[in-house]
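Slide 14.
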Amino acid sequence: MKKHILIEGRVQGVGFRHWLYKTAMQRNIAGWVKNKPSGEVEALLIGNDEEINIIIKLCKKGPSLSKVLKVKVKDYNEEYLKKSFEIIRT
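Slide 15: predicted structure.
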């Protein structure tokens, strides 16, 4: 399963990318996470369906300092070959 997610709310400057990195690594999920200039956090999650669904549910709450307003989820159909999860610096 490959899912592209966009998290809206107070999600930058609160450790969201590092929290998602740690969460993805613990669940053996590949992909990436980055901040967007618009103030959102964007991520690609690749791996086991059940684990990705759990992470999407966790993203609706986020780390303790965040205030998530919305999580948009889309299927991702492009090729992605990396087997790790990374934080993309912007």
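Speaker note: The first strand starts at residue 2 and ends at 10.
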